[in-house]
Amino acid sequence: MSRSLPASIDDTLEMLTSSSYVADRSLATVLYLALKMQRPLFLEGEAGVGKTEIAKVLAEALDRPLIRLQCYEGLDISSSVYEWNYAAQMVDIRMREASGDTNRDAMEDDVFSERFLIRRPILQALQQVDGRAPVLLIDELDRTDEAFEAFLLEILSDFQVTIPELGTIRAAEPPIVIITTNRTREIHDALKRRCLYHWVDYPDAERELEIVKLKVPGANAALSREIVDYVQRLRQMELFKNPGIAETLDWATALMELDKVALDPQTVSDTLGVILKYQDDIAAIQGSEGAEILNEIKSQARADGARAGVSAQPV
Q1: What does the buried/exposed string (b/e) look like for 279-293 if buried means 16 or more CB atoms within 10 Å of the residue's CB?
Q2: Per the domain annotation, does 315 fall within a domain?
Q3: In sequence order, which residues have a C-beta less than 8 Å from that of residue 274 and are 6 or more positions away?
Q4: For residue 281, what are the domain limits?
Q5: How many domains does the chain have?
Q6: Per-residue pLDDT tens digits for 65-102
Q7: Spatial separation of the C-alpha atoms in residues 212 and 204, rounded to whole Å
Q8: CA–CA dist 293, 274 (Å, integer)
């Protein structure tokens, strides 16, 4: 059996924390409400801020199956909901004909029965397994087109899907639905109205440092602080693609593999490809620009250390 849903916002925050997801109270609040109200949760934000991870954490914390629908351009019903196993249907028809069975009505009823139905992620989510309603992750919805959005309206409103040959299939218990978008295009209001909404932003420096400590526990404390401060500075620049939390964690892991205990200009220049994924961004940071950011970080760290030392002196 799946675990019970959190009974309060504090319980939700504790659930996320115990699963190593560092969340703020606003996210815990909207997540608690989505679970309580049985409404889909629409998460919007830049790529790499941890939207997809929320669904994974929910599935693990609540002991529910995770069903993921990865969206892409051209996604349709046959790839997302269901399709018929045409090859198996043709074999069955040929075998009936060979045996002399020519009852067309019976043949049609049989070949369009559930044994020839291929269930895709959305239909799987509506037909729960072992009495556990799953977590349905509809990931990067903005990659699809408006026609697919329109199709989702019935599912998100009534948690049901209509198959012409079989009728309407309804969920005995609504799945927990998490929808993510990187906002490469606007999603229609009709779909958003059926969801609770939350913008997932980049974390501030303290929360990102806490994430690094949780996810890369072996990283040197001083190095972790420098990594976070450096990435925070990069996000303030005019880059084509800002580094996400995933890139911060990758950089911390990479520098550990290189046995680094502090950042230096050469190391930053050599490893920029871990956190920046476009050559124009790398070219903008390599050299004097990257060195200047590092000098500012180290100067600030020395100033903070000096102030801390003064305040620690006995009066």
Answers
A1: eebbebbbeeebbeb
A2: no
A3: 247, 250, 251, 254
A4: 205-303
A5: 3
A6: 999 999 999 999 889 999 999 999 889 888 887 887 76
A7: 12
A8: 17
